[in-house]
Design brief:
By secondary structure, this protein is of the alpha/beta class. Helices cover 46% and strands 15% of the residues. It has helices at 2-26, 30-52, 59-86, 92-98, 118-144, 146-153, 178-189, 212-220, 223-226, 245-250, 278-291, 323-335, 344-353, 361-372, 377-398, 447-452, and strands at 200-205, 231-237, 253-257, 266-272, 297-302, 316-317, 409-416, 422-434, 462-469, 477-489. The strands form two sheets. Strands 3-2-4-5-1-6 form a six-stranded mixed β-sheet. A four-stranded antiparallel β-sheet has the order 7-8-10-9. Helix 13 runs parallel beside helix 15 (377-398). The radius of gyration is 27 Å and the shape is flat. Residues 88-124 and 162-169 have low confidence and may be disordered.
């Protein structure tokens, strides 16, 4: 009986201590939670950066690392949002632009966006504080369980080519696709059962410019993949409709060849711009199963969901980055390793700007280049105002805002004509993506020049601009066909 009573009392004391500790945690101030969040984010980011420099092959660890990365993005998003919320400034222009009541406001979940009643503002404030405390609890739990993860992590070898983990080189490595990369590599290295003559097919689907080609290029450049396949071929086309087995092979580009491997396994990458023609696909797959060595694989990338049914394994679906991940990506392009808290006004404006860019990688690079050139509050406010007007004017002229870069749209330069009262209006007719070594001259005028007006001679009629030159494989160059429309009277103030 004494043992039972002792056990009950021990359990009661344990629960009482946990209850008191939880209550004490709930009574922490927002400032204390933010300080704790900063400390946790430093620890988590250190582990994530170390993990990205090692070749982690364990699937469970890859998933755990992906979860850590997502929570890190969320934590930095909350941290910067609260900093912007609590910032006080006497700069009227910054106040009007940064804290405007807008559906694009990234901190609308935390601020009192509807100021008609004090009750609504109180509810939003409580929800924001609750979410902050929840984020701290999740990160604390992760950090507490990191000991085993770090021990296993240190057992994996470092990569021969270190990733561009330094924030100054964020535009030189693939961002946010580490888990998908490992999933694709795992599929390629998986051994096929003896007697199975079927070729493994992995579909990768996603919208335009989401990073399908970049993901595949990083997979193919991995040493594990190059040491597994003796030949890697790339085919880029519309739908395979007019292709035969002979013409298909002739239209492929050799990405890698290793004649030292005896197995003769091949990897074929098929990048489709349209839906796959089913008849052509069946003919090509039948021919491949007769000609390609056992263990060969095929990867198909496409924008169409119909491609999913062609796979022999679960498809990889690439979507645009979450708002938290996209903000982390953009803040690092802007501030590098510098703490954005040192520039509270600029950070507040940047959080408004990022909501106007529709999750586009190219927009992020272009706007970051424009902003980094001048850390002026006035310039950043001007860019924010320009982006908002750009969206509104396209909706007025086209009936909707073209979310994809491949659709025709209008842009306006922030520069004015010599008379100073007219805007420079330009129609973007078409976009192109090509290899760095492709024939054709690269346009000398960039989109940054177009927006800032930094050109020696104002373009007239039809001309080409360089949207972006990628610094990561496959090193694509993005250009656009533009047409100078006319000067129009300015309606901005």
């Amino acid at each position: 009986m004494e043992a039972v009573i002792s056990g009950v009392l021990g359990e009661f004391v344990s629960r009482a201590i946990s209850f008191v500790a939880e209550k004490c945690r709930e009574q922490t101030t927002v400032e204390q939670d933010l300080q704790r969040l900063c400390q946790l984010l430093l620890r988590i980011s250190t582990i994530v950066e170390e993990a990205e420099g090692r070749r982690v092959e364990n699937r469970a660890m890859v998933r755990q690392l992906s979860t850590m990365r997502e929570q890190m993005f969320r934590g930095y998003y909350l941290l910067d949002t609260f900093r912007c919320r609590e910032r006080k400034t006497n700069h009227d222009e910054v106040s009007q632009l940064s804290f405007a009541q807008s559906k694009f406001n990234p901190a609308k979940r935390f601020r009192c966006l509807v100021r008609n009643t004090q009750i609504e503002g109180t509810v939003i404030g409580r929800e924001s504080i609750k979410e902050l405390k929840q984020a701290v609890l999740v990160l604390e739990s992760m950090v507490a369980d990191m000991k085993e993860f770090v021990i296993f992590l240190m057992s994996y070898p470092q990569m021969n080519r270190q990733p561009y983990g330094a924030y100054l080189y964020l535009d030189k490595y693939m961002f946010g696709r580490q888990m998908e990369r490992e999933q694709a590599i795992s599929f390629l290295l998986q051994a096929e059962p003896l007697g199975n003559e079927k070729i493994g097919v992995l579909p990768i689907v996603g919208p335009a410019l989401v990073g399908k080609s970049t993901l595949v290029e990083h997979v193919c450049n991995d040493d594990r993949v190059r040491n597994h396949f003796s030949l890697i071929l790339l085919y880029i086309g519309n739908d395979l409709k007019d292709e035969t087995s002979t013409t298909f092979r002739d239209n492929c580009v050799i990405k890698h060849q290793n004649i030292a491997l005896d197995e003769g396994r091949s990897l074929v990458i098929i990048e489709l711009l349209e839906d796959m023609n089913r008849g052509a696909w069946k003919r090509m797959l039948h021919s491949a199963e007769r000609c390609m060595a056992h263990g060969s694989k095929i990867i198909i990338t496409s924008r169409s969901e119909k491609t999913v049914s062609l796979g022999t394994t679960e498809a990889l679906r690439l979507n645009y980055l979450s708002k938290e991940a996209y903000w982390y990506f953009f803040r690092m392009l802007l501030f590098g390793s510098t703490d954005p808290g040192e520039y509270p006004e600029l950070t507040s404006i940047a959080m408004e700007i990022v909501r106007e860019m529709c999750g586009s990688f190219i927009y992020a690079y272009v706007v970051a280049t424009l902003l980094r050139a001048n850390l002026s509050t006035r310039l950043w406010c001007r860019v924010l105002r320009h982006l908002r007007e750009h969206t509104q004017k396209n909706i007025l002229l086209l009936g909707e805002y073209p979310l994809q870069e491949s659709r025709p749209r209008y842009v306006w330069s922030m520069a004015r004509t010599r008379r100073g009262s007219e805007d420079i209006k330009i129609l973007v007719c078409d976009d192109h993506q090509k290899w760095t070594d492709s024939h054709g001259e690269v346009p000398k005028i960039t989109v940054v020049d177009l927006l800032s007006g930094a050109w020696s001679t104002m373009p007239q009629g039809k001309f080409k601009v360089l949207s972006w030159r990628s610094l990561i494989p496959p090193y694509y160059i993005y250009t656009a066909d533009c047409e100078f429309i006319r000067n129009e009277s300015s309606t901005t103030t």
